[in-house]
């Protein structure tokens, strides 16, 4: 079983967030997981240029390290999204990575996989990080298993380390159990409405979002998801 961890802390492998993630990962390793961690701060992660090529042609115009993460999670069973809280939200680095993943929000690559969130803070705002990253995981297709967060007293002293470690290890074990048992998670109303919106958007713009359209069409998602049914005057089937 393979786990891919994406860490958006500017402190990389030395970060408090990575420390908490390592407890999740170690618990997974004890249950047979092979893990690969991407510390975004050690990689070249350029900003999205908003050109739309990923939705049209299917690939990205930028040649940097981001596709390595996307390639890794194709063969993963488990995905961890990790970010400390920076001014009540994820870090700029994590957001840059998420923005570069926009095509995957249109063409979810994590269906059948399981995800969890790791965050840290000085004590305020981490719930927004969990809410945002858990929603991202779900829109990307993963079953959302849970989160763990820790409070660090400046600069690096973790509050209640034993409790945080225990929660992190439980989360690691739970991820493995979910994957082994092929657990299913009902979609939240928020994710259903986001997918409904995407279906409408892709259908209406199918001449521009060609790669998205082909992906959805192949999977029958225009028919299967309530609200994504094409309008009756919808036009050409092949999007031409
Ligand atoms: C730019 C910046 C913004 C921050 N904003 C918040 C915040 O809104 N709430 C909070 O509780 N801590 C905030 N912190 C503190 C970090 O979340 C905290 O130190 C965290 O443990 C750092 O994790 P790391 O070692 O993984 O980078 C901020 C730190 C920085 C550098």
- Beta-strand residue percentage: 15-25%
Report the count of strand segments: 6
| Largest beta-sheet characterization | 6 strands, mixed
Order of helices and strands: EHEHHEHHEHEEHHHH
What value does the average pLDDT take?
93
The outline comes out as globular
| Second rung of CATH, namely the architecture of the largest domain | 3-Layer(aba) Sandwich
Bound molecules: flavin mononucleotide
Work out the helix count. 10
By CATH's scheme, which homologous superfamily of the largest domain applies?
Flavodoxin domain
Distance between the termini: 41 Å
CATH class of the largest domain: Alpha Beta
Name the structural class: alpha/beta
In words, what does this structure look like?
- This protein is α/β, with parallel strands linked by helices.
- The chain folds into 2 domains: 2-181, Flavodoxin domain (Rossmann fold), CATH 3.40.50; 186-240, no CATH class.
- 44% of the residues lie in helices and 17% in strands.
- The protein has a 6-stranded mixed beta sheet, sandwiched between helices.
- Strand 1, helix 1 (16-30) and strand 2 (34-39) form a beta-alpha-beta unit.
- Helix 1 (16-30) packs across helix 7.
- Flavin mononucleotide binds next to helix 1 and strand 4.
């Amino acid at each position: 079983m393979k786990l891919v961890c994406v860490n958006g802390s500017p402190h990389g492998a030395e970060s408090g967030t990575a420390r908490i993630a390592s407890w999740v990962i170690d618990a997974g390793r004890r249950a047979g997981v092979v893990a690969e961690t991407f510390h975004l701060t050690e990689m070249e992660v350029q900003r999205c240029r908003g050109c739309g090529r990923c939705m049209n042609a299917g690939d990205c115009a930028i040649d940097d390290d981001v596709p390595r993460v996307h390639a890794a999670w194709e063969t993963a069973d488990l995905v961890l999204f990790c970010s400390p809280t920076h001014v009540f939200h994820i870090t700029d680095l994590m957001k840059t990575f998420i923005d570069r993943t926009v095509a995957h929000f249109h063409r979810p690559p994590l269906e059948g996989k399981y995800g969890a969130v790791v965050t840290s803070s000085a004590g305020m705002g981490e719930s927004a990080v969990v809410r945002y990253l858990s929603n991202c995981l779900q829109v990307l297709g993963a079953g959302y298993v849970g989160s763990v967060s820790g409070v660090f007293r400046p600069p690096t002293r973790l509050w209640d380390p034993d409790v945080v470690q225990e929660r992190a290890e439980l989360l690691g074990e739970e991820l493995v159990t979910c994957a082994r048992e092929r657990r299913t998670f009902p979609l939240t109303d928020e994710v259903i409405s986001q997918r409904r919106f995407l279906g409408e958007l892709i259908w209406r713009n199918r001449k521009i979002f060609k790669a998205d359209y082909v992906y959805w069409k192949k999977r029958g998602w225009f028919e299967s998801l309530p609200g994504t049914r094409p309008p009756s005057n919808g036009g050409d089937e092949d999007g031409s």
